[in-house]
Every structure is written in structure tokens, then in C-alpha cells.
Amino acid sequence: MTATTPTMVDGLPSGQPAASRFGRLSVAVRQMRTRAAGARLDRWLLIVGGVLMPLGVLLIILGWVGASRTPLPFEQNDYLISGGILGLGLVIAGGFVYFAYWQTVRIQESREQSRELISAMSRLEGLLVSGVSMGAPGTGGNGAPGATFVSTASGSIFHRPDCTVVSGRTDLSPVDAERTKLQPCRICTPLAVTQ
């Protein structure tokens, strides 16, 4: 009995379908994306900008000190070039990097605020939809006369179902505003017609 070894094509046995190679490639690309997203580019921009600007200021100061110690202009040129111009370049580059950090953080905060706003609007939409279903048919749940209101078992006033006085209570009973002798709530004003 002879042992045969499968031939290898692109690191896989030749009998293995190309779909599994594509699947492996998809997994590798997904892993690269998660590593790149976790790199925290904004942190690196802050560090680089925070190092370049003070380093540039230090080079400018050292260039000035060196140039001020000699009265001859041709000796001052070396200090101006190495300290002054290089330092000025580092300050400007550090400023741009720090500005990029600030913009990155601002964009991230803007995106986070947008996500929170969309989430809040979705919750509000869900509450509005559920509030419409609490009203009587044909009234749209707007609190117009004839709508369904609620009261407590021993209460002397009736409320809208979303009134803060009765929200979260489980001992509520429905009340028809046209057929009750209960007084309307002064907080939620259930009989006020909303346009």
C-alpha cells in the first residue's frame, strides 16, 4: 500500500474548493479591519502633535541661543537653519497633526451624537405609536373629548394614559370623559384639544 500526498495549490490541498479559500480570505480581511479600528488613531495623533510642537519650540530657542552667542553673521546662519527653520517646521507640522487629532475627535463625537439622536428618535417614535394606540378608535389618541382616559380606583380626577401622575401604575381603570363625574387633571389637561 502506497501513501499518496495531496498536491498543494495556494497552500490548500488541490481537492479543496475555492470557496473555502475565499472564506479564509474573508476571515483574514475581517480580522485586519478589527485590528485597524482598534488602533486608536486619534491617540497617536495627540502624542505626535504633543511631541512635535514642544520639540520645535525647543529647537527655535536653541537656535536663538546659539545665534546670539556669536556676532558674526556667517556663524549665525548655521543656527538659524538648523534651529530656527527646522524648529519652525516642527511647530507647524505639530500644529497640523494636533489639528488632525482635534478634527478626528470632533468627528467621532459627532457620529456618536448622531447615533444617540437616532436611537432617541426611534424610542420617541415607538412611544408616539404606542400612545396613539391608547386612544379610542377614531380619536387618534390626541386627548379630545370622547377619548379613553384613566383614573385610579379611589381617585376623584381622570388623566391621560401618559400623565406623569399615573404613569407606571397598574391599578388604573378606563374612563369615558363624556359619561363620568370625575374632574379632569390639571397637570395633563385631558380635555384640551390638541391641534
Draw up the topology in text:
Elements (H helix, E strand, L loop, with lengths): L7 E2 L2 E2 L4 H20 L3 H28 L4 H62 L13 E5 L4 E2 L13 E5 L6 E2 L11
Parallel strand pairs: 4-6
Antiparallel strand pairs: 1-2, 3-5
Helix pairs in contact: 2-3
What does this structure look like?
- This protein is mostly helical.
- It folds into two domains: 40-133; 135-195, no CATH class.
- It has helices at 18-37, 41-68, 73-134, and strands at 8-9, 12-13, 148-152, 157-158, 172-176, 183-184.
- The strands form three sheets. A two-stranded antiparallel sheet has the order 1-2. Strands 3-5 form a two-stranded antiparallel ribbon. It has a two-stranded parallel ribbon with strand order 4-6.
- The longest helix is centred in the middle third of the chain and has 62 residues, at 73-134.
- The model is unreliable at 133-146 (pLDDT under 50).
